[in-house]
Design goal:
CATH superfamily of the largest domain: CBS-domain
Number of helices: 11
CATH architecture of the largest domain: Roll
Low-confidence stretches: 190-200, 204-222
Helix content: 25-40%
CATH class of the largest domain: Alpha Beta
Strand order of the largest sheet: 7-8-9-10
Distance between the termini: 15 Å
Mean pLDDT: 85
Length: about 290
């Protein structure tokens, strides 16, 4: 299978002199998680992703808290170490590059000019042509899972995403997934100051009087809990289900990861499967065919 059979086109782009406010709006309006930066000749020069914006929004210094995204220029924060591929190449060549680099997408070029983009999503959607139906989720899933409680602060969720270099945190109750928070959820939240009243584990203390006193001393502060942002009742998949079914769910519901549960009635969390996990395992399974 050739890349030009499954790549996306046209590509959402901007210039290096655009602002992060424009990038953020493009991501929202075009429903994309990355923007390719091109020069005046439509040659790709960089990329900026949701994770990049999350890191910027989570800057802890007072100077950054006061800055508007309208004043932040793309070229100062875009990633410039682009890896590209040509549209005539085999899809598995692209899969290997994504695995080796850890990137989520590849700009596709012809004579150096941008003609498309190939992402993990495009490969997952083409999975029935690349993978046998007998491969079970538990072979591809990752464990342990990074989790939090619904009473954790969003600041704690930011920290988990940054420390573990992940795109989602599963919210659990008695080891059962009750919610999920992704970088997509966080990109439209910009907390200013998180009030005091947190346990040493980062869980919020919701005593009304303490909150009232803190807000009275710090007008305009933002205090957000995981339960106020999370997607409730996330779509899950049993560990013995086919990876193709997981890929089907990801495509149908436009999501990039699924909490994996055991076969018990308690639906205990035993792992997580993401598009990245599929990419990382696809090469070894494909060569077995």
């Amino acid at each position: 299978m050739r890349i030009n059979e499954i790549m996306k086109t046209p590509v959402v782009t901007c210039s290096e002199n655009d602002t992060l406010a424009r990038v953020r709006n493009l991501m929202l309006n075009k429903n994309v998680t990355r923007i390719i930066i091109v020069d005046e000749n439509n040659k790709p020069t960089g990329i900026i992703t949701q994770k990049d914006i999350i890191r910027i929004l989570n800057k802890s210094t007072p100077v950054w808290r006061r800055r508007s995204l309208d004043s932040v220029i793309v070229k100062n924060y875009m990633s410039k170490n682009l890896i590209t591929e040509v549209q005539e190449a085999d899809v598995m060549n692209a899969v290997l590059k994504l695995k080796e680099t850890g990137f989520s997408s590849l700009p596709i070029v012809s004579d150096g000019k941008l003609v498309g983009i190939l992402s993990k999503t495009d490969i997952v959607q083409a999975l029935p042509k690349l993978l046998d139906s007998g491969i079970q989720v538990k072979r591809f899933m990752k464990t342990p899972v990074v989790t939090a409680k619904k009473s954790h602060s969003i600041h704690h969720i930011y920290d988990l995403i940054r420390e573990h270099n992940i795109s989602r945190v599963v919210i659990v109750e008695k080891n059962s997934p009750i919610g999920i928070i992704t970088t997509t959820d966080l990109i439209f939240i910009k907390p200013k100051v998180f009030i005091t009243g947190l346990t040493d584990k980062g869980e919020a203390l919701r005593e009304p009087e303490k909150i009232k006193r803190t807000l009275s001393r710090n007008p305009g502060t933002v205090f957000i809990l995981a339960e106020e942002v999370m997607t409730r009742d996330p779509i899950v998949i049993p560990q013995n289900q086919s990876v193709l079914k997981a890929a089907e769910y990801m495509s149908r519901y436009n999501i990039s990861g699924l909490p994996v549960i055991d076969d018990s009635s308690n639906k205990n969390l035993v792992g997580i499967i993401t598009k990245r996990d599929i990419i990382n395992h696809l090469i070894e399974v494909y060569t077995e065919r």
